[in-house]
Task: inverse folding
């Protein structure tokens, strides 16, 4: 008896491609995988985002899936530099596949310039953060700030009591 073997979705092609230098700004990013992706009417499970070197999302947040293709639209105007494509897709076997890559845009009118500080720093792709992860991160920050505030208040009370009984 032969049982089916499922593999994770692999990125087969991308436009723009990883490490590609483009001189004409693309209207969209298109990712092609080796198998159809799972979709859901209830929530968006396959996402593509494009961020600039500062980590700011610049795409139009309109990821769409058709079979084994995922697309996201890009704004008309931008500046020369590095851009990062971050994706999160669900393959036919139900496994989540996340990855990212970089492409470089160089306008014919505006060559890419890298400052000495940027040249010394290694640029890395920004992982895609889902809204749930973003909420988790900000709630952790609130918890930490609350602890610091309570700790400061306790120290003030102890200092006040110490000075009062001198």
Result:
């Amino acid at each position: 008896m032969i049982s089916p073997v499922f593999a994770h979705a692999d990125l087969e092609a991308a436009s723009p491609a990883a490490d590609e230098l483009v001189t004409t700004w693309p209207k969209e990013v298109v990712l092609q995988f080796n198998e159809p992706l799972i979709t859901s009417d209830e929530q968006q499970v396959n996402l593509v985002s494009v961020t600039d070197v500062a980590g700011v999302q610049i795409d139009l947040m309109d990821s769409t899936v058709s079979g084994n293709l995922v697309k996201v639209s890009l704004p008309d105007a931008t500046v020369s530099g590095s851009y990062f494509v971050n994706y999160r897709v669900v393959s036919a076997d139900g496994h989540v596949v996340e990855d990212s890559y970089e492409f470089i845009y160089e306008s014919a009118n505006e060559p890419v310039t890298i400052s000495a500080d940027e040249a010394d720093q290694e640029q890395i792709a920004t992982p895609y953060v889902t809204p749930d992860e973003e909420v988790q991160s900000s709630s952790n920050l609130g918890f930490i700030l609350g602890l610091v505030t309570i700790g400061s208040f306790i120290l003030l009370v102890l200092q006040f009591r110490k000075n009062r009984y001198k």
